[in-house]
Amino acid sequence: MLRKLPKFVAQFKLMNLKTNRVAVIGSGSWATAIAKMLLENVSQINWFFRKPETIELFQKLGHNPRYLRSVEFDTAKINFYNDINKITEESEILILAIPSAFLPVIFKNLKTNISRKFILSGIKGTVSDENLLVVEYLNKYFNVPFESVGVIAGPCHAEEVALERLSYLTIACPDEEKAVNFARLIACDYISTNVSDDIWGTEYASVLKNIIAIAAGIVHGLRYGDNFQAVLASNAIQEIKRFVDAVHPITRDIKSSAYLGDLIVTLYSQFSRNRMFGTMIGKGYSVKTAQLDMNMIAEGYFAAKSIYDLNKKYKVDMPISEAVYNILYKNESPKTVIENLIPKLS
Question: CATH code at 57?
Answer without folding.
Answer: 3.40.50.720
